[in-house]
Amino acid sequence: MEKNERVWYLCSMATTLTTPEIFIALVVAAHAAVLALRLSISLYEA
């Protein structure tokens, strides 16, 4: 595989995210953060 082919392969993997996709990702990340916080608090109290 030549260098130009490798660069093209890496560039074709990168895609732009739309605003709804970013919002959904932020909601999922926030939900995971809340669950992790609740778990850490319950483990600390135990």
Written overview of the protein:
The protein has helices spanning 3-13, 19-45. It has 46 residues and is mainly α. The chain has a domain at 16-46. The model has no long low-confidence stretch (mean pLDDT 81).
Note the main attributes of this structure.
single chain, 2 helices, mainly alpha, 83% helix, 46 residues
What is the CA-CA span between the terminal residues?
A: 56 Å
- Major pleated sheet: none
Radius of gyration: 19 Å
SS strand fraction: under 5%
Task: Return the structural class.
Answer: mainly alpha
Q: What string, H for helix and E for strand, traces the elements in order?
A: HH
Outline the fold blueprint.
Blueprint: H1 3-13, H2 19-45
In short:
It is built from 2 helices and no strands.
